[in-house]
Each structure stands twice: as C-alpha cells, then as structure tokens.
Specification:
Pfam families: Sua5_C (PF03481), Sua5_yciO_yrdC (PF01300)
GO molecular function: ATP binding; double-stranded RNA binding; L-threonylcarbamoyladenylate synthase; tRNA binding
Strand order of the largest sheet: 1-8-2-3-7-4-6-5-9-10-11
Protein name: Threonylcarbamoyl-AMP synthase
Structural class: alpha/beta
Number of strands: 15
CATH superfamily of the largest domain: DHBP synthase
Function: Required for the formation of a threonylcarbamoyl group on adenosine at position 37 (t(6)A37) in tRNAs that read codons beginning with adenine.
Organism: Lentilactobacillus parabuchneri
Oligomer: single chain
Bound molecules: threonylcarbamoyladenylate, magnesium ion
Order of helices and strands: EHEEHEHHEHEHEHEEEHEEHEHEHEH
Amino acid sequence: METLVLKATQLDQAADFLKKGELVAFPTETVYGLGADATNEAAVKKVYAAKGRPSDNPLIVTVSSVSMVEKFVQPLSDEARHLIQQFWPGSLTMIFKLKPNALSKTVTGGLDTAAFRFPNNQTTLDLISKAGVPIVGPSANTSGKPSPTTAKHVYHDLNGKIAAIVDGGPTTVGVESTILDMSVDTPSILRPGAVTKEDIESVIHRPVIDELHHVGAKQTPKAPGMKYKHYAPAAQVYIVDPDDDWHDVVDWIKSHPQPVGVMAFDHVIKTINWPDNADVISLGSDAKSAAHDLFAELRDFDNHPEYKIIFTQGIDPEGIGEAYMNRLNKSAGQMHFKQL
Ligand code: TXA
Ligand code: MG
C-alpha cells in the first residue's frame, strides 16, 4: 500500500495510526525517525522489518515530556536532571537504567537500559502527546543507507512499508543526536552529535568519556548500532584529508575519464579549475553546514549510478566536526584518497 505523506496539520490522523500499531515517520531537528508505539511490541517489531534492521540493535525511545521517561527508568540523578534542563528539547539522547521489565526486549535488545530522546521539533512533540505514548525512533532509512533529512528521502526508502510520513520540511542539524550513556559511573559518549563533549562537561563539571577514542578494532562498540555498515552510498567514498593537496585530486580526476563526484567546501571549490568529468557539490563553509549537507548529498549521488567514486573533504574533528567525520568515515568504510 502507498505510504501517505501528511502535513504537520494532519497530526490526528498520524496519531491514530500510531495508536493502531502502525508505523509513522516523523521529523526531528537531526534526521527523520521511524515511529511506532514503544509500548506495543507487535508495532515495534514492524520497525525492524521495515528498515531491515538487525534485531539485536536497540531502539531510541522518543518522548514529549520528562514524566514519560520517569515512568520507565530508575530515579534520575541530579546530573541527568541538569542535562535534561540544559539540552532538552534537543540533540542529546541519554541512556538510563530501566525499572525491571519496563519496556519489551524488542525495544531494548535485551539490555537493562534504554536510550531516551526529546527532539527539538514541535510537530513531533505534539504528535507524541496526541498518541499519548512514547514512540521508538530509529532513523527512517533502510538499514545501512544514509539517514534521511527530508520526507522525500524517507519516501524513497520506505514507501509501501509504513502507513505515513509526517512532512516537517528538511531537518536543520543533518546528523543524528549525540548518545550519552548515563547508566554507568562515568558518563560516556557512544555517538558524537551536535551536543559536544565540552557542552556536556560544562553542565556536569566533570570529565566524560568519549567512547570513540576507546574502541579498539577488536572491541565491540557499546552502542550496538555502531558496529554495522552505515551511511554507504552505491559509489565508493574516499576522504580527502586536511593534509592532502587538492591539486593531486584534480590530477587523479583528469587522468581517469569517468564521471567523479566531489563534495568540498566553498573555499576549496573556488580555487580550482575543475575538469569536466568532475561533478562538484558544495559542503558550504564550515563543519555545521557540512554536517547538515552530508547525508542529502550522498543520497543525491545515489540517483546517478554513473558515479562510482566520490571524493569528500575531511576536516579536523572539532565540535560538530567530530560527528561529521564519524559519519563520513563510516560512509567511506575508512577509505582515504591517499590509498588510491
Ligand atoms: O537523532 C537521532 O538520534 C535519530 C532521530 C530519528 O531521533 N535517531 C537515531 O536512531 O539515530 P538510531 O536507531 O538510528 O540510532 C540509535 C543508536 C543505535 O546505534 C543503537 O545501537 C544505540 O543508539 N542504542 C539504543 N539504545 C541503546 C542502549 N540502551 N545502549 C546502548 N546503545 C543504544
Ligand atoms: Mg540509524
């Protein structure tokens, strides 16, 4: 059945679908999510099927009030409350210890914790309030593909597999939320996002662990989702590192007459005389615009199968640049221009 695309004014219809155990994709400030009633196990199971998601990968629980969280979790610490006060609604997802059997195994992947997110998007907060239940909210893409930042991206991946999409326009941040594990003694960042380590430390006044810098090649990442292949377009992405010379990239493109995709910052684009076989797309001027554009541009290249190679500009992993580089590294499967 064709998936309905609903406007933000049609939330009653969207909430009815959720109450009936159907799937509804929803906008957030980061990326679009795939919603189902988190308290309805049969509904949650459909999310895994629609996405083709491995079933041991737990889901984020999306809420529209702090009391919705308190229903399911052990008493919140003062630190957790401070972080909630500072960053909710917003792009900080927090993992808390659950009360026994508070949520089904289908949501938690069998863990005794769950990740909670309070998105900064009024349409979706209203939708959750109307549904009256928290909704699970993995990114609304086919597993492995770049996360969706427009309703169109969701439609492309999930048309016919879900009841509806609430179209809230393009997302503003473009990469998924920061995930902070608050269920352990020292809070630990499992996935970098727009809320940075420094932002968090300035609220709780003690160092937090950046798990990315602790995960060795052989260890299993603590966020189960981090171990899967991710964000991969059909073409092979190669990272052009800050110490690479773009003239070498141009020489490579000139000596290989196939069409090549390039994603770079304005200051690089304008200094180079690009050969005709290069399709050059801007990442804007800074890490913020790059994070915003990355997934959408990778998806655009997927519409053009003639591109087998995309060169994408890497940056220093500072601020939201860490989230950008984290996602870019996964898209590229760690491949760099230097390796060509
Ligand atoms: O910005 C976002 O967070 C988006 C929007 C839609 O809200 N959602 C999102 O969900 O990115 P998803 O499912 O694509 O990513 C959630 C990540 C996965 O890597 C999962 O393994 C991890 O969070 N996760 C969920 N629950 C966890 C838990 N209890 N412990 C550790 N990791 C958990
Ligand atoms: Mg995802």
